[in-house]
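Lab notes, practical 5.
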Amino acid sequence: HDDEGDFTYSEAQSGSAKVEMIEGLYKVTCSLLLENDEVCDFEYYGPLAFYNRTLDGNMSNLTEDVELTFTQGMAIYYGDIYEMGSDAWNVVLAEADYDLDINYGQGNVTHGAGDYIPDGPYTLLDANTAEELPAGTMIAGIYDASYGGYWGCWFYSVRRQVEARLVSGMVDVSREGDLYTLELKLKDGAGRNVTATYTGKLTYYSGE
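Output from the prediction step:
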């Protein structure tokens, strides 16, 4: 990565890595032969965050409850993409220190509700077992690398080095004009709470 946040990507043809634990921190020493025959040597010493994306267990590395302060939000309308009884909205909320570094949720609303998100409570359900996705529900977190990774409701933060698949709880939505209030009371698979209240506008996009 450079100072602007841009990065250069190159696949490794071969190489080796040595991993050591030193006084509670990781030392990773690598020597890689890249696809352009350039040799890349680097060393990292510090903490490592571990994420469970095996589809087993809770897929959350939270160790405690978190209460978040979101200052920005966006909403993406997809319409009846699942053909399971409702129209879908994706909602992204973020804290002030990142450009929509994401709490990402997907809610299901009444057919034709494409101008705004209707008021009311939205309850999480498991899309893998649900026979339909009725209005007033949200999809619990799903990770599927073949479809781009994250779907449904997640909390993740690069700064904190945490991510959590959200599996239960509810979000209460109310609206006055173009100002929304969203009250989040969600849990990961271990029962740790992810809570927040956001009041403000939602930048609108259409994904139809």
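Observations recorded by the TA: The longest strand covers residues 162-176. The two ends are 33 Å apart (CA to CA).
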